[in-house]
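Tutorial, part two.
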Amino acid sequence: MRIALVQLSYGDDEPFDDRVERVARTVAGLADHDLVVLPELWAPTGFGYQGWADEAQPLDGPWARSMAEVARSAGVVLHAGSFVEELDDPGPDGHDLANTSLVLDATGATLGVYRKIHRFGFGAGEPKLMEAGTEVVVIDLPDGSGGTVRTGLSTCYDLRFPELYRRQQEAGAEMFLVPAAWPAARVGHWSLLGRARAVENQAVVVQVNTGGTHAGTSMGGHSQVVTATGDVLAEAAHAGEAVLSVLVDTSDTARYRRDFPVLPDRRL
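Running the prediction step on this input gives:
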């Protein structure tokens, strides 16, 4: 399975629409991949809280339609990263926004929708403005060889909560996709936690971060792919713009789980 990780780097001076057009051109050049993954909140920016309400859109809005067209034109499965979704009705916390990820197949049809469960901000940012997701989402993605790979969806701060990934593994996940807007100040945690989630669940972890500066916050980059053994298959060595093209043998995960059967020994 050939996967492209698109690590976008940008600043607050790049307009929303210009960035969407730039990303569309980038994905169009990755048509020889089975899966393309974009970062979290790459269009409205991960730390630009003050603009989120103005840039919110419904699940079937212009941004989602443009991403469907990008996937269809390139003929790839596209994890479009996440966007600020305008919900039909306020949730339990009284908010009508969500941090929502969208996965589209090569025809532009929706394969998966995930609303971020763990909101970052310690009472500000996401918790103040957004509803928390409630559903653990695991979907089947084409593996490029006629089969599928069971894949769990999560976003950025979720990576700090191992119970989510265990739930996904219990639902059959052999791969985790993690788009993010993870800051440079804690990028060491980003790399370490990705390896931990891979090792403890014997699953491939695909982490796609952003670079640049959002609302004065320097982003960490260092996107990576970690195998089920915990080995880093590929990593962006900086926080700038990068596209990692990685060939992942998804059959290795099942083989490793058979050869080193840790998971059946769980007692709790």
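The helical segments are 16-28, 52-55, 62-74, 126-129, 162-170, 187-201, 251-259. In part three we will examine how such features are distributed along the chain.
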